[in-house]
Design a protein that fits this description.
- The structure is a single chain.
- This protein has helices at 23-26, 29-37, 46-57, 83-91, 112-120, 133-141, 158-175, 188-198, 223-232, and strands spanning 4-8, 40-43, 70-73, 96-99, 124-127, 148-153, 178-182, 204-209, 217-222, 243-248.
- The protein has 2 domains: 4-127, Tetrapyrrole methylase, N-terminal domain (Cobalt-precorrin-4 Transmethylase, domain 1, 3-Layer(aba) Sandwich), CATH 3.40.1010; 133-248, Tetrapyrrole methylase, C-terminal domain (Methyltransferase, Cobalt-precorrin-4 Transmethylase, Domain 2).
- It is α/β, with parallel strands linked by helices.
Length: 250
């Protein structure tokens, strides 16, 4: 009988070992317990997963010493031909945990193809409760939570990025739909400035940073107000901080 593929949520950013009690605020006790009993993980980033398992181990003992736990990587560079081998232990009856670098796996994450293959091979897939930056941002933004779309990363080229922003703003206006996107953390400030300079003054823009982490900041303003912030030098500190951007056209 095949094992079960558990979709294990991770924290949305690093938690200091001295603040391990914060783990319980975002990862339910039952999820921690299940994670601790697994000894095979398929992870977007092995280093991040080891750090997460160390936090879990500080609260409850792991099934094996950390150095003996098997972690196979699955990321954007993993070829499709490698996916069956990642599932081979499950087909032999072993349970496994699929874990993202941050947040929930298979959402804005390369794990979706593995989950689909697991279904095709008759492997049970069990999602577990944990933090999703996308949903948390929608919840806290005050924008339309009845209709929203996640668009991943926007183009890096300034002209292409402005074109894409205008297209998303127009879609938001026509469908009354909240548009979400993210950026590589060191380019966060450039993206916010692009939004401010490209969108109309009555468009709402939310910037949700460090969600569930000690430095959490969630700010929703009209673009006209963001422009005032920009001109006065009071922009939020976003550099190298995980951030979700949302807009809703007026």
């Amino acid at each position: 009988m095949p094992g079960t593929l558990y979709l294990i949520p991770n924290t949305l950013g690093p938690i200091d070992a001295d603040s391990v009690d914060l783990l319980g605020l975002v990862i339910p006790t039952e999820v921690q317990s299940l994670t601790a009993r697994l000894d095979y993980f398929i992870a977007e980033n092995a280093k991040t997963t080891r750090a997460f398992l160390k936090l879990v181990a500080a609260i409850r003992p792991l099934a094996k010493p950390l150095q003996e736990i098997r972690i196979s990587e699955l990321n954007v560079n993993t070829e499709a031909s490698m996916l069956p081998s990642l599932l081979a232990p499950l087909q032999a009856g072993q349970d496994a945990g699929l874990i993202s670098e941050a947040g929930v796996p298979a959402v804005a994450d390369p794990g979706a193809n593995l989950v689909r293959l697991a279904h095709q091979k008759g492997i049970e897939v069990k999602p577990l409760v944990g933090p999703s930056s996308i949903l948390l941002a929608v919840m806290a933004s005050g924008l339309n939570g009845q209709s929203f779309a996640f668009n991943g990363y926007l183009p890096v080229d300034p002209a292409e990025r402005a074109k894409r922003i205008k297209a998303l703003e127009e879609r938001s206006r026509q469908e009354r739909q909240t548009q979400l996107f993210i950026e590589t953390p060191y380019r966060n400030s450039a993206l916010l400035e692009a939004l401010i300079k490209t969108c109309k003054g009555n468009t709402l823009v939310c910037v949700a940073t460090d969600l569930t982490l000690p430095g959490e900041s969630i700010q929703t303003r009209m673009v006209a107000n963001w422009k005032e912030e920009l001109s006065s030098g009071r922009m939020p500190a976003l550099h190298k901080k995980p951030t979700v951007f949302l807009l809703l056209a007026g």
